[in-house]
Structures
1.
Amino acid sequence: MNEHPTGFGPGTFGSDYLAEAATLLAHDDPFPGGAVVPPIYQTSLFTFANYAEMADTFAGRRRQPIYSRGDNPTVMEFEARVAALEGAEAARGFSSGMAAISATVLAFVGAGERIVAVRNCYGDAYRLFERLFPRLNIKVDYVDGSDPDAVAAALPGAKLLYLESPTSMLFELQDIAHLTRLAKEQGIVTSIDNSWATPVFQKPISHGVDLVLHSASKYLGGHSDTVAGVVAGSAAHIGRINEQTYSSLGGKLSPFEAWLLLRGLRTLPLRLPHHMKSGLILAERLKAHGQVERVNHPAYSNHPGKATLAGYAGLFSFEVTEDVDIPAFVDALKFFRIGVSWGGHESLVVPAKASLEQTPGLNSMARFGVSPRTIRFNVGLENVEDLWADIAQAFDKAKK
Ligand SMILES: Cc1ncc(COP(=O)(O)O)c(C=O)c1O
């Protein structure tokens, strides 16, 4: 593997993004009283000195937070940080990734309209599209996002293109620059779930994407202590979300969680290269292991969508051979705890089989052909040799 911590070599995208993020996240102008950390504005409302201040604020002649379902200074600090990282004009924080996804999509599509979504998108986004959208008379066409012809065929007449590159179970890539160009030619708004790559490994706005979504519960927070979401984009697009859905649906981010996210963000450029390196080491060893049939990791893809990635996160999956007893393998692991989220400090394992059995009819994985022999690893910050020893002993115990 390349000596450079990004694995992509100095002077390439990865190192530029990381270097840029490092100073951006470590350096702040002092906060009130010279504090190096922002205060948590744990308040529901903000008062005005007099009638004129209130009237001017409501009329937009003056900017001051009014009520924390709208603006809150700690949350605004987090939003400004994400906007800067993504190279966006603005960002909006939400109480969860799903609050960000639903408020964003619903701001741009309405009854009688249609969106095009990548198949195998995150499960609850699929649930939103499958359960709520039919009741609102919004149609969703699912496409194999790795096939630009399939996307091109589905685009005409759509209002929004919903991407997630890579997808979070099979790690299929989309050529976001190409697909965005196709959508732009037809005036279609584009969005991407960038939770996996984060802005230190992929900057979708620089490839023309309009709206970048995150489950901030994952790498942005990075410590498995917060559920939160954020969307970044142009001032006009974020303005539309503010106007249409943000304060009316009410899924705002709490000041304390924004503060935790700001704390987590500071180490993003340190954590991601570690996740990447350990993930690649384990992926390589799994690939060579006799009880593994294939490894789903973007490093092994030759899809053009790889060109926008400046690095790899530590979440990937693999398919085991028939002679592996999957429940026994999962139960034998000590350092990979069994759990669904990812992006935190701790290693986790998800057997697709358990999840496929749980939600029949509402599982894009079942519908779009994820093998039940697929297992997903979130590679955390532990010593990679301890992780590998754990995996090796679990395979031994699980051999049928
Ligand atoms: C790829 C992806 N996008 C979005 C979400 C939703 O985020 P949240 O759980 O913060 O609502 C998740 C959550 O697991 C996810 O994995």
2.
Amino acid sequence: MKIALLGYGRMGKEVERQAYARGHEISAIFDINDSFSPESDVRGAQAVISFVLAEGVLYHIKVAAQLGLPIVEGTTGWYDQLDQLKSIKNLTIIYSPNFSIGVYQFTKLTRYAAQLMGSLPEYDCFLHEFHHVGKADSPSGTAKKLAHVLLENLPHKDKVLYDTSHGVINPATLHVTSTRVGRVPGTHEIGFDSPADEIVLRHVAHGREGFASGAIRAAEWLVGKTGIYTMDDFMHDFN
Ligand SMILES: NC(=O)c1ccc[n+]([C@@H]2O[C@H](COP(=O)([O-])OP(=O)(O)OC[C@H]3O[C@@H](n4cnc5c(N)ncnc54)[C@H](O)[C@@H]3O)[C@@H](O)[C@H]2O)c1
């Protein structure tokens, strides 16, 4: 398959490496100084994979629809505009804050763990994430998704605090915290803590390979479809 890349930063470069490793070709690359527009020459691309910054995302998605190209949107931090996707004609998109198949399964484990622990209010719960210092958004999109899953399944938690707790925290609040340090590709940790013991679930990305190869597999899956999809749709067919 021929792929057009939007964004040639850390993720764009990893997608390029993984795409060639899976037998694909990168036919065109667009970055900040060579922007993606309805006049762009995508050189026969059959799909677009996008890892840019949140500001340009909606415009790029509209351009992909105009060009009749399915788009894999990996950029995070734009989900307050999700409602607008429905009004874009001819759109084929899969979007996810995390294309890692390991993180997808980790999210499922989190749901199952929260369902198990939800009937045991003596187990308090926390979520912490680490990412490299270049990450633009905080908390990560993945942490927000995991927090949502925890809140849905833990009856003794009814809201999330993403900030420092100034004072004693309300026991019904789920504390979600972030550290930005060095080059960490992405670590998410969930703990259930009781007076007797602690259970910890941890996903550690060893690099960007998992995100990139997941995005490429999602592109392979998306070609030939129409509509708006998430990882649930992709993984449903994949499993
Ligand atoms: N979904 C996932 O699995 C996943 C995994 C890792 C990172 N991300 C997200 O992907 C995005 C990119 O991450 P990164 O680490 O590659 O960042 P980066 O800063 O290394 O790269 C971003 C690139 O996009 C370019 N860019 C910015 N605005 C643009 C625009 N309007 N048009 C074209 N190019 C533009 C920049 O010049 C840069 O080369 C972030 O939102 C990050 O949170 C998602």
